[in-house]
Amino acid sequence: MKSIPARTVLYSICISFMSPVISQAQDTINDYCKQSIKESLVPIHPGTPGKQEFWNKNSRMFKNAPSFNNNGKSWLFNESRTYRYTAFSFTDHKEYTFLANTPYEALTPIWDKIPNGNIYLKVEGIGTNGMDIDLAGSRMFYKSPVFCPPYPGPRYSYKQALLKGLKFLYNQPYIKNWYFTGKPDHQEYPLYCYPAKIAGTLIYGMLMYHKYFPENDTSMVIARKAADYLMKTAEPAGSPLACFPQVYEGQALTAGRFSKELILMQPAETGEVFLYLYEATRDQQYLDYAINIANTYAKNQLPNGTWYIRINKETGKPVTEVLCIPIGIINFLTLLIDKYHQEQFKPVIAPAVTWIMNNPVKTYDWTGQFEDYAAASPYENLTKYEAAWFAQYLLENRDKDSSYEGMAKELIAFCEDQFVFWEKPDIYDSFGTLANRWAVPCTAEQYQGYVPVDASSDHMINTYLKAYKILGEPIFLEKAKALANTIVNIQDENGKVPTFLTPTLPEFWLNCMIASLMMFEEMSSVE
Question: Are residues 479 and 349 in the same domain?
């Protein structure tokens, strides 16, 4: 009789002891899948004709069962009593149908039966005689997979990714150049055409570097010189937007097109960076500058509680009637109040929050507010940034109102539904490239830039992490880890984190990588 190798016996013994653990882990994974499928049957902020706008008219994909405005205008619909919904799947080439009493029902009855992939939906009105049929509406869309682990783990720890990234950041010539010249090197790095965003986040990057490599004082010098440059070139005292940093400089990319404008969300972001710099240096001028930015916000607030998104910096007049979603301004002013006792800004915050509640929270018009894109018409260019930020705000203040938690969860679901990809999608991105080359899981930025960006994933990771810490629901932590691991795994050996999670777009945004470093630091606390 042939003897059994000792290692085989040992392996069998180990497996027998480990099998309950393996089984338990698999059960947890299955629970996440089941939970995600169950949650996907609930439509997100569905519309009702004449009462509630349908936010998804320009949407390309859905995880949650959508409902559409199929209110046809033909002769038949005045007498229709039944509507037939037919979804054709390009994955299995089958039709999935159900009947309803209105043409704008959610696809819940068939949603968990339709396979993931491209779908053609048509809604037909059926006359009272059962014979007359007319088309109420139709559209194509992509049904995207819900969260269902396991997903790839990280190649190394979040802390290692952070340190590698900080070293890469510090050693870039266009960053070290600040030490010698005190100004941006536009030739070496063209994206300095957005000085408030790029130089502002560079300050935070250098503060992080000094935190982990305190023996190097050069990084602090760079941070201060970048800050001094932003203050020196800011709008002068007495001007309509006094002390606001320059959003555009030079003619590169869209800076020339928008050279006379300021986008109102950016100064708040820069102001927060100056507060971090004040904490590191205790130099009063940085705190004073942040307060001056806040003063200008207070002076320019509209009676309705918000601000115009784009202002002509010479005249102080709006260049578009589009309003800004001011959650970034609220967060900046809240920090000034809570940490620096600037109570004078409390009257600014309350109407700004009320405006958000009365507008995008109701309409779901979470329009993008990006410095390199023009202001968009309603629902044309939705993004997840302001929606997720406001979800975080609601979670942090959920003790004030029992409805805040539910609102926050629906906003997070909206962001995931429209912008998070757990698997490679069978769609074309905004630049006409098949998206099956994306690194997944990942997060797209906005409708007009429907490509995965590291900072967009960072933003969702931070949102999931906030939800986990406040609500204690483990699925949020698992979602954060799944997205974070992709960022770790695409990091170059030299420490660089690519901006786009697709090989077709090599452009590198410094602010996005710094957002990834901040994310690595946050995630290292839950490793």
Answer: yes
